Glucose-insensitive transcription protein (Sparassis crispa), 199 residues
Amino acid sequence: MASLRHEFYETDERLTLEVFDKGADPAAVSVTFQPRSLAYTHGEKTLVLEPLKGQIDPEKSTYTVGKFKVEIRLAKMAQGRWGALVGDSPDPLTTIPAASAPAPTPRQPQKNWEGITAAILDEDKDGGPSEDPNAGGDTAVNGFFQKLYADADEDTRRAMLKSYQESGGTTLSTNWDEVGKAPVEVKPPEGSEWKKWAA
């Protein structure tokens, strides 16, 4: 029996084996895939690789017969590099210890913005219907800020006005100790760019 020269290259998902069998007849080439073995037959020429270094999926493994070589693509059952075609190591899939479930990561409590919005909208409804039915959200928010401003002390009002004007409407602060020290920086929403319009 003639032996066949072959070489391979691999990725984490697939191993490609090139069998150099010049002028192979596609009708006479047979490739048999098993989970841990591969058998190539073409007339008197054979190549048997067993046991393969890792387990393959026979259903997803394929081959193509070319003029100078036959390309055999082995679909790996487990991702990772083999480093060799054959190996007498036990089947990697049967020796992997059962992975313990990862410890759940504690989640930080999140602010219930929908609840806050609903509360603002409810307050707006109590204050009377808006003339524009589509302006409900804006009217409610404006009403909320008007109420906040009306109930605030002098420093809070100054902080609100200064932060809103200097930031071009991108920041609203109620902390005069912070706002009073320096000009308030413009902070456009993420993905937006701030541009000052020429008068």
